[in-house]
Amino acid sequence: MESVNKYQINPSSCKKTVICYLLREFYRLGWATGSGGGISIKESENSIWIAPSGVHKEMVESDDLFEMDLEGNVINTPKNEKLRCSECTPLFLQAYKLRNAGAVLHSHSANALLVTNLFDTEFQCIDFEMIKGIQDHRNTEWCRVPIIPNTENESELTESLKNAMLAYPRSNAVLVRNHGVYIWGPTWEKAKIHAECYEYLFKIVIKSRKLNIPLKTTLGSDPKIKAWMIDENQTTDIDLRNELQHRCVKWQSVEDLRKLGVLLFKLDGTQENEELSKICRERNYKNSDIKEIHAKMDGYENLTKIFATEHLHADEEIRYVLKGSGYFDVRNREDQWVRIQVTKGDLIILPEGIYHRYVPDLTNYILVKRIFQEEPKWTPYNRPSDDHESRAKYTKEFY
Fold first, then answer.
1. Per-residue burial over 100-136, b = 16 or more CB atoms within 10 Å of its CB, e = otherwise
2. Model confidence at 66: pLDDT above 90
3. What is the SS3 assignment for 189-251?
4. Among 53, 62, 54, which Cα is nearest to 22's?
């Protein structure tokens, strides 16, 4: 086998040569053993090179690569007709389309796999120097990476990986539980740096847990509840569907939400279950219906504008998420916005008289069960643009 030294990384190296070199490095590091892992690099605006699937990655040569466009169509095939295009292709394409990536790397690192069993829905760490190596991050800010469930076939991960990319716009990686990690960057050089930094962070968190060194957590008492203060400076110029978090995230706990009268329950996402029935009996909820909100439905833009208009109700608003995700924003005592992320299985109860709004996230899809105490109805009372007096009255009476 040829020495990896033949493939020197320098500015003049062609993209195909870089892929072969990096694959050998990945194999040496244990990230691409047993034919696992993969790499793709963008050649031009609508052309990418991608390593084949099911082969010894440390033996891949330049003539073994596929050239494809960003729609997944093959432009050039390898000389060896027995080679198959990577199973990662549809996932790589998401990074190119959604993040304008210049390169995407897939690692089967043991550390990436193990760390998915230490966290529930996202990996998180702070105050480690290598966080600064990740684009748009500081070591004093939280590094958060979404974790999605594994599937039997790699291509079946595409939709959940896409949703994770949209839900975590600052992350340059997505972890797959008991599988590995997808990492990207604006260039192959930056993607390589990202891969090395994330690997370091995964390793240091695992080692810290092993040594019983306490690690900070971003969330409140329930790791499945995510709520934060909205950065009001972003709301004017940025799409409300973005996270709108402060760079140093100001998290809200379950107790913070309860003080506002907001209740959250984590169920299994099925339409009928014992816990849901128990809550309905205890709170005298008698009726329900199912609503699906998505970008392809008639009048979607107008409907979401109505939902996103600040309003209140004379009754509780109860929503149980069956599929998809979105945000409920509520006003706190100081008249500031608190954003609550809801995903499958979340049952949220907003009290009567609280100003709030519903905003879809970047996935633009949610399927909810609406639950009512009496007959199904949705009567919003929009807040006037300058409503300080009624807001003050509401604050006094409610709290």
1. ebbbbbbbbbbbbbebbeebebbbbbbebebbebbee
2. yes
3. HHHHHHHHHHHHHHHHHHHHHHCCCCCCCCCCCCCCCEEEEECHHHCCCCCCCCCCECCCCCE
4. 62
* The one-letter amino acid at 225: I
| Catalytic-residue membership of 129 | yes
Query: What are the pLDDT digits (tens) for 265-324?
Result: 989 889 888 999 999 999 999 999 999 999 999 999 999 999 999 999 989 999 999 998
| Tokens linked to 277 | 């029935």
Read off the pLDDT of residues 84-135 as tens digits, 9 standing for 90 and up.
Answer: 999 899 999 999 999 999 999 999 999 999 999 998 888 999 999 999 999 9
Q: Are strands 143-148 and 337-343 parallel, antiparallel or unpaired?
A: unpaired
Q: What is the pLDDT of residues 197-217, one digit of tens each?
A: 999 999 999 999 999 998 887
The full DSSP string for 379-399 is: --EEPPTT-HHHHHHHHHHH-
Give the span between the Cα atoms of 218 and 364, in whole angstroms. Answer: 26
User: DSSP class of residue 138?
Assistant: -
- In the set 71, 122, 129, 272, the catalytic residue is 129
> How many Cβ atoms sit within 10 Å of the Cβ of residue 267?
17
Cβ partners under 8 Å of residue 251, min gap 6 = 218, 219, 220, 226, 227, 228
Rounded Cα distance between 284 and 307, Å, is 25
Q: What is the band of 11 on the pLDDT scale with cuts at 50, 70, 90?
A: very low
- Residue 278, C-beta contacts closer than 8 angstroms, at least 6 positions apart: none
Residues across the chain: 399
- Return d(Cα 169, Cα 222) in angstroms, integer: 23
| 243 contacts: CB under 8 Å, gap ≥ 6 | 167, 169, 228, 339
**Domains by residue range for the chain, with CATH:** 4-210 (3.40.225.10), 226-398 (2.60.120.10)
As a dihedral over the C-alpha atoms of residue 71, residue 75, residue 78, residue 81, rounded to 10 degrees, the angle is 80
